[in-house]
Amino acid sequence: MSIVVVGSVALDSVYTPFGRAEDALGGSAVYFTTAASVYDRVNVVGVVGEDFPEDCLGFLRSRDADLRSLQVAPGKTFRWGGRYALDMNSRETLFTELGVFGEFQPSVPAEFGCSEVVFVGNIHPQLQLEVLQQTEDGDQTPRLRALDTMNLWIETTRDELTEVLRRVDLVLLAEEEVRQYAGTPSLRVAARQILDLGPKRLAIKQGSYGALLLGADGGYFAAPSFPLDDVVDPTGAGDAFAGGFLGYLSGRLRSGEALTERDYQRALVHGNIMGSFACEDFSVGRLRTVTMEDVEDRYQKLVGFTHFDSDWRDGGEDG
Amino acid sequence: MSIVVVGSVALDSVYTPFGRAEDALGGSAVYFTTAASVYDRVNVVGVVGEDFPEDCLGFLRSRDADLRSLQVAPGKTFRWGGRYALDMNSRETLFTELGVFGEFQPSVPAEFGCSEVVFVGNIHPQLQLEVLQQTEDGDQTPRLRALDTMNLWIETTRDELTEVLRRVDLVLLAEEEVRQYAGTPSLRVAARQILDLGPKRLAIKQGSYGALLLGADGGYFAAPSFPLDDVVDPTGAGDAFAGGFLGYLSGRLRSGEALTERDYQRALVHGNIMGSFACEDFSVGRLRTVTMEDVEDRYQKLVGFTHFDSDWRDGGEDG
Questions:
Q1: Superfamily covering domain B3-306
Q2: Residue B318: its chain A contacts at CB < 8 A?
Q3: What is the per-residue pLDDT across B166-208, written as a single tens digit (0 to 9) for each?
Q4: Nearest residue of chain A to residue B318 (CA atoms)
Q5: Contacting residues of A for B206, CB less than 8 Å apart
Q6: Within a 10 A sphere around the Cβ of A303, how many other Cβ atoms?
Q7: What pLDDT digit, counting tens, does each position of A148-201 carry?
Q8: Are B202 and B171 in contact (CB under 8 A)?
Q9: Contact residues, chain A, for B86 at CB < 8 Å
Q10: Which of A64, A59, A58, A57 is nearest to A38 (CA)?
Q11: Which residue(s) pair with A71 in the sheet?
């Protein structure tokens, strides 16, 4: 057991200019788990209603995910509906039916406390805090605690969110969330404001542009996205990014060695790769078929897409 | 003599949330020349009015730019005014006073025909075509013809613009211009539509995200921008990008060797570097002081910001 994720398990209805999916498997914990389980075992902390389809549970089990903390509660599963604009970059929420997710009380079994990585996905900061506390009980604490959030919590529960930010090692946020939290247009100034709270690193998700990694020590790294001809459905790409990022790091931690800056840089690339797979179909349609060979293929292509000669004065070939 | 540029020479009034500059030296040919002249000699084809300040002419001469084709016409210099929003990404045009630029008839002396690089900046496509024809007279034709344009010409003179696109080797456009020309939200599909017209390469400027290079042969390369804490004024960054890109290539061509894909990749990085300098002050305030050592410093930092291990399975150190 290596990664604990807490987040939503949902049924999504997504409408794009080019297609639709209704009541399809979704939610941050699902996208995360599907991506991260390519690398390591995932313990899912979440809740579904009694209406949650058996084949969706079966799919999660097929990922070798530990579902002991996925509660099945009386009531309906969290449902979200959204419609994308023609450019696929902006979307409107059509409906949000919290169902059993509205009363969700996460419970992390003691044996998950030995997980090396804990990811508190986009839920109320108070619940994120409880999950972190539950995994910190006892002698064994996670070696890497990571957090995601969303504009709603930045607006409505800023103080509680700040408390959680102080307690994690790694923060994964979308670019606009970084600016929103810090209240400044300069991304680097905003990033430093978050890093000054305590996290060692901040990964900034920039959608089709890729991602940045900023360190409390001043470190900076930029990884462009894997280019796609067509984006079928970007829903869950940020969660799949987190899954690739933390899945890769969890695998590295299993080797027993401490994580290096290079591990984090590679992890950022793995995050982008998983984000790209998420965009290629509705729900986890493409993600569920991803193999390590698919990952390797995109990884090597990204090496070619981004590396340039360090010697530009005489046309050296050492890059 | 190695680069011919045709474009605007202007006096800009720029207002940002953090400062202002009035009647300051600007225009696409000016930003291009200031950046490109770090690498190679530039022949400026343009027009100014009799009111153009002597110290601005003196500055251009100090760049070792050939001003024989910079006409001084009776009337006023082209003036543009713009105001940036808080995020510095969007701006509104406050005024456009074409002045002598409205009747501009570019004239390229025969001796400029031996220039290796011709850049037709953002002017009416008919004038771009005339400049290209003037540089193609005789036996010697430029080894690299490059083009920029803007949304106005895509909207109002699409057919003429298409004619010019058919005649150049390299196109430099902003992301939204690529989509606008092709009429499709998929950037890669849009890029192919432009490359299918004949250009071998398309450089796509993505502002603070950096730039992409796409080839007619399917080649793909992504270069993130050089990160800045604060953007003082992004006016002219795209033209400085073009200056760095083509300036570097022109310098490479002087060596007598044919340009390789690696040269173009390095050129994209140089474009981003010059774009970053342009943003650090109003007008050419920072660009004018850039040395080759400044360029080298940002280039090596970008190597560190973007290169990652090609071997991720065992933590190899070969990247």
A1: Ribokinase (3.40.1190.20)
A2: none
A3: 999 999 999 999 999 999 988 999 999 999 999 999 999 999 9
A4: A319
A5: 209
A6: 17
A7: 999 999 999 999 999 999 999 999 999 999 999 999 988 999 999 999 999 999
A8: yes
A9: 185
A10: A64
A11: A47
Cβ-Cβ contacts under 8 Å, B305 against chain A: 220-222
**pLDDT of residue A78 exceeding 90:** yes
CB–CB of B210/A224 below 8 Å? yes
Q: What are the backbone angles phi and psi of residue A296, rounded to the nearest 5°?
A: -60, -40
Query: Tokens in use for B155?
Result: 């909207």
Tokens of B105: 């008839």
If you ran DSSP here, which 8-state letter would residue A167 be given? T
3-state secondary structure of A77: coil
The residues in B 74-93 lying below 8 A from A, measured between CB atoms, are 86-88
CB interface of B with A, residues 146-185, below 8 Å: 179, 185
Q: What is the DSSP string of A295-309?
A: HHHHHHHHHHHH---
Interface touch A224/B210, C-beta < 8 Å: yes
User: Does any CB of chain B come closer than 8 Å to the CB of residue A221?
Assistant: yes
Handedness of CA A205, A208, A211, A212 (dihedral sign): negative
| CB distance B255 to B213 below 8 Å | no
Confidence of residue A146 (pLDDT cuts 50, 70, 90): very high
Confidence (pLDDT) at B139: 65
Q: How many CB pairs under 8 A join A and B?
A: 124
Instruction: Report the C-alpha gap between B35 and B32 in whole angstroms.
Output: 5
CA distance B141 to A128: 65
**C-alpha–C-alpha distance, residues B237 and B234, integer Å:** 6
Put simply, whether A293 touches B (Cβ < 8 Å) is no
From CA B316, how far away is CA B319, in angstroms rounded?
Answer: 8
Nearest to B242 by CA among B30, B11, B12: B30
Residue A58 in contact with partner chain B when CB distance is under 8 A:
no
Which residues are A297's β-sheet partners? none
Q: What is the pLDDT of residues B203-232, one digit of tens each?
A: 999 999 999 999 999 999 999 999 998 899
Query: Do B308 and A221 make contact, defined as CB atoms within 8 angstroms?
Result: yes
Residue B205 forms contact with A (CB below 8 Å): no
Interface of A with B in 111-140 (CB under 8 A): none
Q: Where are the domains of chain A?
A: 3-306
CA angle A178, B240, B157 (to 5 degrees): 100
CA A35/CA A291 separation, integer angstroms: 10
Beta bridge pairs of residue B71: B47
CB–CB of A276/A305 below 8 Å?
no
Helix (H, G, I), strand (E, B) or coil at A203: strand
Searching chain B, which residue's CA lies closest to the CA of residue A312?
B266
Residue type, position A151, single letter: N
The dihedral built from the CA positions of residue B35, B37, B42 and B48, taken in this order, carries a sign that is positive
Q: Is residue A125 helix, strand or coil? A: helix
Q: Distance (Å, rounded) from C-alpha A265 to C-alpha A193?
A: 21
CA B277 to the chain's CA centroid: 13
Non-local (6+) Cβ contacts of A35 within 8 A are: A239, A240, A241, A242, A243, A244, A247, A274, A277, A278, A287, A290
